[in-house]
Specification:
The chain is an alpha+beta fold and 238 residues long. The chain has a domain at 72-234: Immunoglobulin-like, CATH 2.60.40. Helix content is 17%, strand content 25%. The protein has helices at 11-23, 38-59, 218-222; strands at 72-73, 76-77, 79-85, 100-101, 105-108, 113-119, 142-144, 154-155, 163-168, 178-182, 194-200, 206-211, 228-234. The strands form four sheets. A six-stranded mixed β-sheet has the order 4-3-6-11-7-8, with no helix packed on it. It has a three-stranded mixed β-sheet with strand order 5-13-12. A hairpin with a 2-residue loop joins strand 1 and strand 2. It is globular, with a radius of gyration of 33 Å.
């Protein structure tokens, strides 16, 4: 009816309409931001790598992420040391007892040394968890079944059920140095020789006794020159 005053608009209804316009449908300007998938991808990647390294540590299966060391230091070629265990082709040291050959050898100090140990023994011997771990080599790493032109996979341990021998130092400045040797059954050819390659520095000079800590041939473990020998470290040649 004309002449009657018009009621002012309800403030609450006006504010509700303004709020609805500000929010709008999803994906329009003013709508609440959606959480992206990037945090979930980052979480999945981090979880994968943590699980990978934990698995490799527990099982000894190589993760293959350790880069190969250089074969030289300060421009000088590293020195090579080759040892064999129960080598059927070494007629001078071939007998029925377990034996490293040579058991006694000399290396230069302050030199990057490349060791290769070839094991022809197909047996396996019980060892402690510590004796399955690589310790003292460059990167605490050994390379399995390498070729003359390429290093094999890097591992930091050998599963306990596959260890035949160890190359270890239990006293002196190199105490705790340990390289587990896999059974020859784990070689690519199966029983023809499993090789381990590692790199190490031995900087304290003198003569030091190494031992096999895996309980293998009792006679060999009790006789020097078989599962025990000397490594002599001398000053490098000028």
């Amino acid at each position: 009816m004309s002449g009657q005053p018009v009621a002012p608009p309800d403030d609450s209804r006006v504010k509700y309409r303004e709020m609805r316009r500000d929010i709008g449908p999803p994906g329009t300007p003013g709508s609440p931001p959606r959480r992206g998938v990037l945090p979930y991808i980052v979480l999945a990647v981090v979880t994968f790598f943590i699980s990978w390294f934990v698995f490799a540590t527990v099982t000894g299966i190589p993760v293959g992420l350790v880069s190969a060391p250089s074969h030289s230091t300060s421009g000088a070629a590293s020195k090579g040391v080759i040892l064999t265990i129960d080598n059927p082709f070494d007629t001078a040291n071939n007998n029925t007892a377990d034996q490293y050959a040579p058991a006694n050898f000399t290396v230069p100090a302050h030199t990057l040394l490349e060791f290769t140990i070839i094991n022809y023994d197909t047996g396996m011997n019980p060892v402690t968890p510590v004796q399955t771990m690589v310790n003292g080599t460059l990167g605490n790493c050994i390379y399995l079944n390498s070729t003359p032109t390429a290093l094999g996979p890097c591992v930091h341990s050998i599963p306990a059920g596959f260890v035949a021998h160890t190359f270890s130092f239990v006293g002196g400045p190199y105490a705790g140095f340990n390289v587990p040797m896999p059974s020859a059954n784990d070689s690519p050819e199966g029983g023809i020789g499993a090789s381990v390659t590692f790199f190490a520095y031995f900087n304290d000079t003198g003569t030091f006794t190494w031992n096999c800590l895996a309980p293998c041939d009792p006679w060999s473990m009790a006789h020097f020159g078989f599962m025990e020998g000397n490594m002599t470290v001398v000053a490098p040649s000028p």
